[in-house]
Specification:
Radius of gyration: 26 Å
Number of helices: 3
Strand content: under 5%
Oligomer: single chain
Structural class: mainly alpha
Length: 119
C-alpha cells in the first residue's frame, strides 16, 4: 500500500506565527522588487513615448506600457494582500501572547482587575 499512497513523511516542528509572518514578509519584499523593476520599465517607455512622433510606433510603445502598467497593478494588489495577511498574523500573535500572559497571571494567583476570563 505504501507504493500506492506513499509513506508518511517526517515533519519538522510546526512553524510558529512569527515564522509564517517572516515568510510572507519575504514574499512581499520580492513583489516590491518586481514592482521597482516595472517602474523602471515604465519610465523608459515614457521617455520613448515623449520622443516619438504620433503613429504606429508610438502606439506600439503605448501598448507595451499599458501591459507593464497592468502587471504592476496586479503585483501591487498581491503586495497589499500579503501585507494584510502579515497584519492579521501579527494580531493573532499579539492575542496569543496576551492570552498566555493572562494564563500565567492566573497560575501565580495574581488576578488583575482588568482580566475578565475567570470572573
Amino acid at each position: 500500500m505504501k507504493r500506492v499512497f506513499g509513506a508518511k513523511k517526517d515533519e519538522g516542528p510546526p512553524s510558529s506565527v512569527q515564522d509564517a509572518s517572516d515568510r510572507i514578509n519575504k514574499r512581499g519584499e520580492n513583489v516590491d522588487e518586481k514592482i521597482r523593476r516595472l517602474d523602471v520599465q515604465l519610465a523608459r517607455y515614457k521617455e520613448q513615448f515623449k520622443k516619438m512622433r504620433p503613429g504606429p510606433a508610438q502606439e506600439a510603445v503605448k501598448a507595451r506600457a499599458m501591459r507593464v502598467l497592468k502587471q504592476k497593478r496586479m503585483y501591487e494588489s498581491q503586495r497589499d494582500m500579503l501585507y494584510n495577511q502579515t497584519f492579521s498574523l501579527d494580531q493573532v500573535a499579539f492575542a496569543a501572547e496576551g492570552h498566555n500572559d493572562s494564563q500565567e497571571t492566573h497560575r501565580t494567583g495574581h488576578i488583575s482587575r482588568f482580566c475578565c476570563l475567570c470572573l
